[in-house]
Amino acid sequence: MLDVVIIGAGPIGLACGIEAQKAGLSYVILEKGCLVNSLYNYPANMTFFSTSERLEIGGVPFTSLQSKPNRAEALEYYRRVTMHFQLQVRLFEAVQQVQPLHKGFEVTSTKATYTCKHLILATGFYDIPVRMNVPGEDLPKVTHYYKDPHYYAFQNVLVVGANNSAVDAALETYRKAAHVTMVLKHDDIGERVKYWVRPDVVNRIAEGSIKAYTNATVAAIREQEVDIQTPEGLVTIPNDFVIAMTGYQPNFDLLKQLGIGLSDDNKMHPQYNPDTMETNVPGIYLAGVVCGGLDTHVWFIENSREHAVLIMQQIAAKV
């Protein structure tokens, strides 16, 4: 029986593995995709808001060409950290079921079955997009993940959203000669947009290079056009692709299956003790951005790295 099974090999899951190793605990990290899978699926040209030292884990220095690293540098860094500590990571191994045992848990994955005394969920929130729930959302031309702008060159592109992901997609595709329209739920670009990017998109909208409908929503999507509900009425425009940057959410089904309580407000905060990170289910801990529920602007890599330390102090004391 392992001391710990960690679900998720993102930066915080890796940090948990490092702390487990330092504490002399037996552990394994299970990841349904590649190493730091969420970061891998970020836009190819993405630059982090945080500086490189605030993304460090395990005391390993993170050096980057600029003060704010990009996606490629982060992937390289976390891969090297994994190699440096020789972390016990099992990639492309999705967890299918967790069953309670008398003194622990049985974790069944797509490749094996593990028994452990403690379970850590470091699953993030990037895997399940928040849907618009409109007709046509399942058409192949609609995506909730944006990767590279060249694909959209010379096309009519609708970008839904007003925060960092949407702004990056709009600006990058515009600069690859796409005809870009944005749909903003409120009356302006989000205040949390990176400060060196926000003036750029505001100016492009002001000059008309990027068309923006404010206080608007997507009403329907069809093969060659979309309907936009605006305060003035329904507008139909030509469209080839929809990039829906509408946000993401944790795997609430998994949390519920494990018996972890969720707040009954619209934030769906998981129940846990902030001093120990242990949930209402003894032996199950939360680490990283999953702690925020739908409040996805609370936890980041830089302020949730300490979750790993808190958790392993508790587990080491018990063991």
TL;DR of this structure?
The chain is an alpha/beta fold and 319 residues long.
Structure description:
The chain is an alpha/beta fold and 319 residues long. It has 2 domains: 2-128 and 248-318, FAD/NAD(P)-binding domain; 131-244, FAD/NAD(P)-binding domain (3-Layer(bba) Sandwich). Helices cover 24% and strands 24% of the residues. It has 8 helices and 17 strands. It has helices at residues 11-22, 37-40, 71-85, 164-174, 198-207, 252-257, 301-304, 306-318; strands spanning 2-7, 27-30, 89-90, 95-101, 104-109, 113-121, 128-129, 142-143, 156-160, 179-183, 211-213, 217-221, 225-230, 233-238, 241-244, 248-249, 284-286. The strands form 4 sheets. Strands 1, 2, 3, 4, 5, 6 and 17 form a 7-stranded mixed beta sheet that branches. Strands 8-15-9-10-11 form a 5-stranded parallel beta sheet, covered by helices on one side. A 3-stranded antiparallel beta sheet has the order 12-13-14, with no helix packed on it. The two termini are 12 Å apart. The model has no long low-confidence stretch (mean pLDDT 95).
Features:
319 residues, alpha/beta, FAD/NAD(P)-binding domain, 2 domains, 7-stranded mixed beta sheet, 8 helices
